[in-house]
């Protein structure tokens, strides 16, 4: 495997570091989203605090953080080899780490779910559909976006394996799922204590 992917990884980290949710909230509502609601820069908090359409815009931009670097590298190196799979994994992880540990936010950031979705959309779109079904089912049943996010992230390695995705990507998805669970540690504790606020509870 060559080192042509390194510039892509660096660019992916910088793109991932852009706090779109914070920028949108500041522009639209003149608020610091990191000091409002849950304090998270992601789409869920933006939607709760300034409106659904702005949350969807944040979601789209955060998804593109993961999708664009991976899909560009895939087109730049179209051959399907183990080396390419490793390169794509590193570039995807760089985007995720940029979002979760932003250079522009003193290495703080979002939970990474939307950015991970972008990575998976570039790697295996059909797996994303099944993961989305898991997410929607969990949120509908238990009313917690955080629980849906954690469950779908943890299910992704199994889903990728089910669709016979290369083992490199399955292993990468284990790393991604672990990082997402770590970022949700406070949510996990609140769920266990019965203190987590449900999505519908914020809109009634």
Strand content: under 5%
Characterize the main sheet. none
- Uncertain segments are none
Radius of gyration computed on alpha carbons: 17 Å
What does this structure look like?
By secondary structure, the protein is mainly α. It has one domain (about 5-204). The protein is about 70% helix and about 0% strand. The protein has helices at about 5-15, 20-30, 45-50, 50-75, 80-100, 115-125, 125-140, 145-160, 165-185, 185-195. Helix 4 packs parallel to helix 6 (about 115-125) and helix 5 packs parallel to helix 9. The longest helix has 25 residues, at about 50-75. The N and C termini lie far apart (about 55 Å). The mean pLDDT is about 95.
Defining traits:
204 residues, mainly alpha, globular
What is shown here, in short?
The chain has 204 residues and is mainly α. Helix content is 72%, strand content 0%.
Topology of this protein?
Layout: H1 6-17, H2 20-29, H3 43-50, H4 52-76, H5 82-100, H6 113-123, H7 125-142, H8 145-162, H9 167-183, H10 185-193
């Amino acid at each position: 495997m060559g080192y042509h992917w390194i510039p892509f990884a660096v660019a992916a980290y910088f793109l991932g570091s852009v706090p779109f949710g914070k920028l949108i909230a500041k522009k639209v509502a003149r608020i610091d989203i990191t000091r409002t609601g849950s304090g998270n820069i992601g789409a869920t908090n933006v939607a709760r605090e300034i409106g659904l359409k702005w949350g969807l815009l944040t979601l789209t931009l955060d998804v593109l953080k993961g999708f664009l670097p991976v899909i560009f590298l895939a087109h730049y190196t179209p051959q399907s080899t183990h080396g390419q799979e490793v390169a794509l994994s590193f570039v995807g992880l760089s985007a995720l780490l940029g979002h979760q540990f932003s250079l522009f936010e003193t290495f703080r950031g979002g939970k990474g779910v939307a950015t991970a979705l972008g990575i998976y959309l570039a790697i295996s779109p059909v797996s994303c559909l099944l993961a989305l079904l898991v997410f929607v089912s969990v949120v509908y049943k238990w009313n917690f976006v955080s629980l849906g996010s954690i469950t779908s992230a943890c299910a992704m390695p199994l889903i990728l394996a089910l669709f016979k995705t290369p083992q490199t990507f399955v292993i990468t998805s284990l790393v991604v799922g672990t990082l997402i669970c770590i970022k949700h540690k406070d949510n996990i504790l609140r769920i266990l204590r019965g203190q987590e606020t449900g999505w519908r509870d914020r809109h009634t």
